[in-house]
Amino acid sequence: MGRDALVLGAGGHAAIAWEIGVLAGMADAGVDVCGAGVIVGTSAGSLVGAQITGDRALDDLFQRQIDPHLQPKESLPPVDFAR
Fold it and tell me: In this structure, what are the phi and psi dihedrals at residue 73, rounded to the nearest 5 degrees?
């Protein structure tokens, strides 16, 4: 295990997009923080940590954040606002 650690913070959906964008920008600059020996996160950071250690490439994760056509469609709850 390496001596480097990546610590990711919370912040909801905005933090997920922001953290993936920052990580992608760092990768573009030649800094591979996704290869850290330990990756930990809280709340949104834990989701990003799981994503970047999964099967998808960081570029793909970034594209999913910026391209609306690649984002999953959320189902709306059955709410009757007129009632």
Answer: -80, 130
Q: Label residue 74 exposed, middle or buried (CB < 10 Å: 0-12, 13-18, 19+).
A: exposed
The span from the CA of 35 to the CA of 23, in Å, is: 11
Decide if 48 contacts 38 (C-beta within 8 A).
Answer: no
**What confidence tens digit (pLDDT) does each residue in 38-62 have?**
999 999 999 999 999 999 999 999 9
d(CA 25, CA 59) in angstroms, rounded, equals 10
Q: What is the C-alpha separation between 72 and 53, in angstroms, rounded?
A: 20
The H-or-E segment that residue 39 falls in is strand 38-41
Predicted TM-score (pTM) above 0.90: no
